[in-house]
Design goal:
The complex is a heterotrimer of chains A (323), B (190) and C (663).
Chain A: E1 7-13, H1 19-25, H2 30-37, E2 38-42, H3 51-56, E3 62-68, E4 71-73, H4 74-86, E5 87-93, H5 94-99, H6 101-105, H7 111-121, E6 136-139, E7 142-145, E8 149-154, E9 164-166, H8 173-184, H9 250-253, H10 271-281, H11 288-298, H12 302-306
Parallel strand pairs in A: 1-2, 1-3, 3-5, 5-9
Antiparallel strand pairs in A: 4-8, 6-7
Chain B: H1 18-25, E1 35-40, H2 44-53, E2 62-67, H3 75-83, E3 88-93, H4 104-121, E4 129-133, H5 139-156, H6 170-188
Parallel strand pairs in B: 1-2, 1-3, 3-4
Helix pairs in contact in B: 2-5
Chain C: E1 9-14, H1 26-34, E2 39-45, H2 51-64, E3 68-73, H3 76-89, E4 97-101, H4 103-107, H5 113-132, E5 141-143, E6 147-151, H6 155-166, E7 170-174, E8 189-190, E9 195-196, H7 197-210, E10 214-217, E11 220-228, E12 231-238, H8 253-257, E13 265-266, E14 275-276, E15 279-280, E16 292-293, H9 299-303, H10 309-314, E17 327-333, E18 335-338, E19 342-344, E20 361-363, H11 364-371, E21 391-398, H12 413-428, E22 431-436, H13 446-455, E23 459-462, E24 465-470, E25 481-487, E26 492-498, E27 500-505, E28 507-509, H14 513-520, E29 547-549, H15 559-579, E30 581-583, E31 589-591, E32 611-614, E33 619-622, H16 632-636, E34 642-644, H17 649-661
Parallel strand pairs in C: 1-2, 1-3, 3-4, 6-7, 6-18, 7-10, 18-29, 20-27, 21-22, 21-27, 22-23
Antiparallel strand pairs in C: 5-30, 8-9, 11-12, 12-17, 13-14, 15-16, 19-28, 24-25, 25-26, 31-34, 32-33
Helix pairs in contact in C: 2-3, 5-17, 6-7, 6-15, 11-12, 12-13
Classes of the chains: A alpha/beta (323), B alpha/beta (190), C alpha/beta (663).
């Protein structure tokens, strides 16, 4: 790509931890290649450009927008809509934009519960006047605006149409570079695709595997796993069977179970359901009472265990709100 | 082509039909639970055929999906049923030990147990999910099970799952406000 | 849903006379379907399944280029094949057809026509959405090898093998014992006709031996079964006899020549009542008439040192092979008949009947051997001390109809107890007491036989025997016994002194039934007998195509029923082999090789052993010939790599969306 034909790149950060921003830098010196190929027109964490600058851009004038983070507030939704309008290609970058990730786990609670915890109940909170964020507050100088805090975290594609997904919490540097290369070389898969492997973590995991039959589930602190056999076969809830490959099976590689940050494999409609069905199917009992005990004792927190990264993207999306 | 979960943004709801909207707007005070029922081909679906042949009447609120075995019922289908508006989901298969596929209904039993714990944590009463064993001869029993399930769902009230993420219209208003605020801000500082 | 401009769906709403049209506005239903995406035309017709109805579909396919068909009518279990065939006749792939069941599941089950109409709309819309995602599939057939294996050489296996062989099929008959004949060969007479068991059985045994189409493998067991209907690969373990079957002429001189002058080892065929030598034959008419050497007690084999009187006796026949080893042979067969029979209940687990503690308490099978002219006493019924019993008690239902052992009725015990009562009386003139719960004599000439035995003077006492106690001392040395029985007709407890007790033991599944069951991929009912595919309409088929059941392995039964079932199983196997091929389930599962990560979650889930792990490619592979299409592995696959024809995720999801959007 010649200097004159430099593309325009935007990066944005919504409901996420910021790790994805750092992950972009984890491509190391290749960031210089990125700078050579693209004008970075918007990247609040690194470049001084304002929202109003984006608003002024013609529609579809940004070539690629890497959007990380889920949608938790009205401001984030506004930015998602704005960047969608201004970008030719919108990429849901990282687990939060893709599936809601850890912020999405807050869908197990609602706004009231979250505010109560954050502004009242934590031991370190001192808030005698019960102050909590308000969308509008009057001060001497005028009206102050804060975005509306939604009850439910949404994924990016539940908010605006998304062209590509780059999974992971955060995405591996190599995969990021693969995606950038694909964009530059115009070798992108069909729109709507997840950029990554179409198989699951077991493919990359060197552990010895066998037929699965589980008599008891262990939580990680209850057992020192054997380093060579499949963690799941040892009763440890490893999500690798259902999680899209691409990370190189890093967690099982250090004797720690996969927790599912790359999300579901191609075509799967619900990550947690895939895990639930697989694990339940291989429970080694035909006795209803024993089955119940194995599940009750072994998996005390199904939502957290099966949807750590994907609750917001699941079929049910959130816990039922109080009526 | 691949499609990711929920690839349709919420702003473009899918599947609305004239009938669906008419039903919605014309919804009377009487609550009619919606039930998705997955019946295995060899026992329960045949039982439902038998109920028909014997003109055994049961609650018409149930919508039947035929699968070859209750073991085919992917938890995704159950969760999707709730997400699509079902108030209850029924899974019916051959009696344990009588499975046409030897013992696959035990896998159904295991998944069912797992699902009940999960949906409960999600705030869905576990009784909205029901597992029934009905042999091909048990048309009456299946019919009674469906009617009984619908009666129980009436007591539990509507689930209306989609309303959970609609943000009560607050969302549209907030977005409008941002546009206004930005417009104002732009006027002050051109 | 799938948006594909080339889709042209034809929708047909059947009136079924007034069955559907009487409840549903079929015209409005067709009109509703017309408005749905991809529907090219929608019609309603009086009887879709009639010839003109089918013609309508065929004509429309050709005239309007329809490429998907939805018929809203009765249950697919009734007419899906009809409309699939109609579509195929018009050149459309038969699997691009879907039915909406608006008769059995809508019109017939509610009076509320408004609700019924909404429900019919939902089912119709679901079928339309579903069929959009259907794929054209080829019908798959497998060839059936015209060769059968019969496992078990009792009367069931013998009968089945002969029937198959007479029809010109090659048969491999596998028997675990050194001879065929099974339990029937042990019996003296058979009820109710009192035919001599050997007289009617041994000609059949000989026929097996002589039949050119039957390959007889005795002293052999099935090691493993692979493959599927039409092409089962069966490994057979052949135990060493230490005698070359092809050289032995059955002269039995070796038995006389054995260095053991006295037979001193219990003969299992005589229930241990008779004795045998290290080289022995179960009974004189054994087939094949080839002795077998017991390596545990043969001096040459066990200690490596013996004068080998047997070898000397064999002379220039030179049939002995002390270095013979176990061999595994593999056979490919199209069909299998499992006829592994039953095991007699061991009453030593019932302490209050004293079997094994009081020498004069016998099982019915032991008494059969004592009464048999070829048995250990040459047909003389004697007690252990050699004396003839004068008072004999027969206890019915030992292990049967008893919640502590087997809840079921073993079906044959009443009749064989009557037979034993008759034979005991005939041979010894003893007084016989039959203690029964009920006498079950429901077969041809059974009741007449019961009357005959009563007329002969056998005493019948209606009551379950509480216990059996020695008349004097601890009974360990023999001597008289007391049967304590609550005579429910007299309403008193009776103590009946006898000097012999016969326990009419139950028939139960073979000890290794569950291993056999697993090897052949069949299931068992609660009591452990093998499970037929349908208790009434498929009594000899199993869940595994091409594997059939005959005889008491399927449930306790008498000889006539066993023979009838064996012939039925042979006929079923013949039908399959003569057809030459069988159509496979269309809705089989398959694995997307790219997506499969080889996690092996699915492997253990398939009861038909259709899924195996390909260690080289690190993926799961499904054998379409073994897959029965239940879809359990598809629902369980964590990576979504396991897919299913006709019942794929997309098809079921679309159906669900259709159903729920029109609630």
């Amino acid at each position: 790509m010649s200097e004159t034909k430099k593309g325009k790149l935007a990066l944005y950060w919504a409901a996420s931890c910021g790790g994805c921003e750092i992950a972009v830098l984890a491509i190391n010196e290749k960031i210089l290649d990125v700078a050579a190929l693209f004008d970075i027109v918007f990247w609040p964490v690194a470049v001084d450009a304002k929202v109003r600058d984006v608003e002024k851009m013609p529609d579809a004038s940004i070539d690629v927008c890497l959007f990380n983070g889920g949608i938790r507030t009205s401001e984030q939704e506004y930015m998602a809509q704005l960047l969608r309008r201004k970008s030719k290609v919108l990429v849901a970058f990282g687990s939060c934009a893709h599936e809601g990730c850890i912020p999405g786990l807050a869908n197990g609670n609602n706004r009231r519960q979250i505010f109560d915890t954050a502004y009242r109940e934590t031991p370190s909170t001192e808030n005698p006047e019960n102050i909590e964020p308000q969308p509008k507050s009057q001060v001497a100088e005028g009206t102050l605006h804060l975005p509306v805090f939604y009850n439910t975290v949404r994924t990016l594609n539940q908010t605006v149409p998304v062209d590509y997904y780059l999974p992971g919490c955060p995405p591996e540097a190599d995969r990021i570079w693969d995606a950038i290369t694909a964009i530059v070389e115009a070798k992108l898969p069909p729109p709507g695709s997840v950029i990554g492997a179409d198989t699951t973590v077991c493919q990359e995991c060197p552990r010895k595997r066998n037929e699965k039959k589980i008599k008891k589930f262990y939580r990680t602190w209850e057992i020192i796993p054997d380093e060579e056999t499949c963690l799941l076969e040892q009763g440890i809830l490893c999500c690798g069977i259902a999680t899209r490959a691409g990370c190189g099976a890093r967690c099982p590689g250090v004797n720690s179970p996969c927790i599912g940050c790359y999300g579901a494999n191609e075509g799967a409609q619900d990550f947690g359901a895939r895990l639930m069905t697989a694990l339940a199917s291989v429970i080694d009992s035909d006795d209803p009472q024993e089955i119940d005990r194995i599940i009750r004792e072994g998996i005390p927190d199904p939502v957290g265990s099966f949807y750590r990264f994907s609750l917001a993207a699941s079929q049910l999306r959130r816990r039922r709100l109080p009526v | 082509m691949s499609e990711t979960p929920n690839a349709q943004a919420d702003s473009a709801p899918e599947g609305d039909s004239p009938i669906f909207s008419a039903q919605k707007s014309g919804q009377s005070s009487e609550y009619k639970p919606r039930v998705a029922a997955f019946l295995c081909n060899w026992c329960s679906y045949t039982a439902s055929d038998l109920a028909g042949t014997a003109r055994i009447h049961y609650s018409p609120n149930v919508r039947i999906i035929r699968v070859m075995c209750s073991g085919r019922v992917d938890p995704t289908f159950v969760l999707k049923s709730f997400a699509l508006g079902a108030d209850g989901v029924l899974i019916a298969g051959c009696h344990p030990g009588d499975c046409h596929y030897i013992d696959q209904n035990y896998k159904t039993m295991r998944r069912y147990t797992m699902l009940r714990y999960f949906v409960e944590q999600m705030g869905i009463e576990p009784d909205r999910l029901r597992l029934v064993w009905a042999s091909a001869a048990e048309g009456q029993y299946l019919a009674d099970s469906i009617t009984g399930f619908v009666e129980d769902l009436k007591k539990l009230g509507p689930l209306n799952w989609k309303a959970n993420w609609e943000e009560n219209g607050e969302r549209a208003k907030a977005l409008e406000d941002i546009v206004h605020e930005h417009a104002e801000a732009m006027e002050v500082q051109p | 849903m799938k948006h594909d401009e080339t889709l042209r769906i034809g929708v047909y709403v059947c009136h079924c006379g007034t069955n559907i049209a009487g409840v549903l506005d079929v015209e409005a239903l067709a009109h509703f379907a017309e408005g749905l995406p991809h529907v090219a035309l929608a019609r309603h017709y009086k009887y879709m399944c009639s010839d003109p109805g089918q013609e309508l579909v065929k004509r429309d396919i050709l005239e309007y280029n329809l490429n998907r068909i939805v018929v809203a009518a009765c249950s697919p279990n009734l007419h899906e094949p009809t409309f699939r065939r109609a579509a195929e006749d018009a050149g459309l792939n038969r699997f691009l057809v879907q039915m909406a069941n608006i008769r059995e599941q809508v019109a017939w089950v509610t009076d509320d026509s408004t609700e019924a109409f909404t429900k019919a709309q939902a089912h119709l819309a679901a079928a339309i959405r579903r069929v959009a995602g259907h794929e054209a599939l080829e019908r798959q057939f497998v060839q059936i090898q015209p060769r059968a294996m019969v496992v078990g050489g009792g009367i069931a296996g013998i009968e089945a093998a002969l029937t198959l062989a007479e029809a010109g099929k090659d048969v491999i008959l596998v028997e675990r014992e050194p001879t065929i004949g099974g339990h029937m060969a042990m019996f003296d007479k058979t009820f109710p006709t009192l035919d001599c068991a050997a007289c009617i059985l041994t000609p059949k045994m000989t026929a097996v031996k002589l039949h050119p189409f039957i390959k007889l493998l005795t002293y052999s067991t099935v090691e493993s079964v692979e493959g599927s209907v039409g092409n089962y690969r069966v490994k057979v373990r052949r135990k060493p006899r230490y005698i070359d079957e092809s050289l032995c002429v059955g002269c039995m001189m070796c038995i006389d020549g054995c260095v053991f002058t006295q037979a001193k080892f219990p003969n299992p065929f005589d229930q241990g009542l008779g004795k045998r030598k290290p080289v022995w034959i179960p009974f004189p008419q054994a087939v094949p008439p080839v002795p077998v050497v017991d390596p545990e007690v043969c001096l040459q084999i066990a200690r490596g040192k013996c004068k080998q009187g047997c070898v000397t006796a064999c002379g220039e026949r030179n049939a002995f092979r002390f270095d013979q080893e176990e061999q595994i042979e593999e056979y490919t067969v199209g069909t299998i008949i499992v006829a592994t029979g039953f095991k007699a209940f061991d009453p030593s687990v019932i302490p209050y009947y004293g079997y094994g503690r009081y020498p004069n308490v016998y099982t019915s099978l032991e008494v059969e051997r004592l009464l048999n002219a070829g048995g250990p006493t040459a047909g003389k019924l004697t007690l252990r001390d050699g004396s003839t019993p004068k008072r004999v008690g027969i206890v019915h239902c030992v292990g049967s109809r008893d919640a502590n052992f087997h809840p079921y009725c073993s079906r044959v015990c009443c009749m064989y107890s009557l037979k034993l009562a008759h034979l005991v009386k005939e041979k010894t003139g003893a007084e016989v007491f039959n203690c029964y719960i009920d006498v079950r004599a429901p077969g041809k000439s059974f009741e007449e036989f019961f009357n005959r035995v009563q007329d002969e003077g056998t005493q019948f006492i209606r009551g379950k025997v509480a216990d059996i106690t020695p008349a004097n001392g601890d009974g360990a040395e023999g001597g008289g016994l007391i049967m304590n029985v609550d005579d429910t007709l007299l309403g008193t407890i009776r103590k009946i002194p006898v000097d012999m007790v016969i326990l009419a033991v139950a028939l139960e599944p073979q000890a290794d039934a569950s291993d056999v069951r697993r090897a052949f991929g069949i299931s068992c009912s609660a009591e452990g007998f093998f499970l037929e595919k349908h208790p009434k309409l498929a009594p000899v088929n199993t869940a595994n195509d091409g594997v059939f059941l005959a005889g008491a392995c399927q449930g306790a039964k008498d000889i006539p029923d066993t023979v009838a079932q064996a012939d039925a199983a042979a006929a079923k196997a013949l039908a399959l082999m003569d057809a030459g091929q069988i159509e496979l389930e269309p809705n089989t599962a398959w694995v997307d090789e790219e997506m499969c990560s080889g996690c092996q979650t699915c492997i253990s889930l398939c009861p038909f052993k259709a899924i195996r792990h390909d260690a080289e490619r690190k993926i799961a592979v499904i054998d379409p010939a073994l897959c029965k299409g239940c879809g359990t592995c598809v629902a369980a696959c964590p990576s979504g790599a396991a897919k299913q024809h006709i019942f794929g995720d997309e098809q079921i999801s679309e159906e669900l969306e259709g159903l729920m959007n029109y609630v």
